[in-house]
Amino acid sequence: MLNRRHIRVKILQILYSQNRSKSTNKVLYDFFNSTTKKFYQFFITQLHFFVLIKQETIRRVEINKKKYYESKIDFLVDFIVENKFIKAIEDSKYIEQYKTKNEINYFKNDIKIVEQVFDKIYNAEFLKNSSKETDPVTLLIKIYKELIVTDSNLYSFYEDCEIGWVDDFPLINTEVLNMLKNFSRDEKLTINKTIFKDKDDKIFGWNLFKRTSENYLIYEKLISKYTPQWESDRIAVIDSLLLKMCITEFKFFENIPYNVSLNEYVEISKYYSSMNSSSFINGILNNVMKDLKDQGL
């Protein structure tokens, strides 16, 4: 579920935390486990959000039944209330047990977010113009991509829920969309029950942190060789950490090609550092890579 780039980002966050707080490795290891667990809780929360939208739809339908004029809300019954994908989530014992065990109920005191997203769905022109022949799951994919994922209030809400959830949001949405597409094809709910693809990925993450942390000062000296015009404190903390992490991969992860590591950290810098950082990091890492190759490392 967590891909290698996302693992790298989480290690970057942990190293940044260590740089600021000087926490012990034990504390940071616990933090690593906690943030990866929170990632999965976010995934379950986002799946359950469909159920909350369904519940809000039913509530609005019931309210409108008490009114004396014709309601226009009934068009959502086929697409939301009777949607097979949402029903499968609602009926999933695994999701329910996981929510109960981990006490997941982020929207308990913030149901207005659900109401606001429902209003967007209710007012969406593409839904009002949809025929009853339209596949409800295909329509739910469109609702998710155009109305749920893009909702700024929901995004801000998640930002306040847990540290790192904003960084997790794109990957979570990819996972949910993949589930929707698979369900549309197979009509079977397939839930990814593992945070890491395999044991190697978790080991990769922790070793990346451990090796970078252990060689921190050695890397400081190495980087200074390629930045003679720069004092170490003039290099942005994030840039410095990204350089050190990539050098760790160059030196200790033989199964990852140099170019793969280099490209990954250049891409990460585009999202987490300053505008010119990617060029700066790319230049230094290319020189480091060349020298390591010349040394046969």
3D architecture notes:
The chain is mostly helical and 297 residues long. It folds into two domains: 4-186, no CATH class; 215-294, NusB-like (N-utilizing Substance Protein B Homolog, Chain A, Orthogonal Bundle), CATH 1.10.940.10. 74% of the residues lie in helices and 0% in strands. The chain contains 15 helices and no strands. The chain has helices spanning 4-21, 25-65, 75-81, 84-91, 93-101, 111-123, 125-128, 136-148, 152-161, 165-186, 199-214, 216-226, 237-252, 258-272, 277-294. Helix 14 runs antiparallel to helix 15. The protein is elongated and about 75 Å long. 26% of the residues are buried. The mean pLDDT is 90.
Keywords:
297 residues, elongated, N-utilizing Substance Protein B Homolog, Chain A, mainly alpha
The portion of residues forming beta strands comes to under 5%
Helical element count? 15
Overall pLDDT metric? 90
Through-space gap between termini: 32 Å
Order of helices and strands: HHHHHHHHHHHHHHH
**Which parts are unreliable, with pLDDT below 50 for 5 consecutive residues or more?**
none
Shape: elongated
* Share of residues in helices: over 70%
The whole-angstrom Rg is 23 Å
- Structural category is mainly alpha
How many domains? 2
- Strand count: 0
Largest sheet, in brief, is:
none
